[in-house]
Amino acid sequence: MSNWIRVCSQAELLPGEYKLVHDGDVPIAVFNIDGELYAIEDVCTHDGGELTGGEVRGHEVECPRHGERFDVRTGAALSAPAYEPTAKFPVKIENGSVFTRDDRWD
Ligand code: FES
Question: Is the pTM of this model over 0.90?
Answer without folding.
Answer: yes
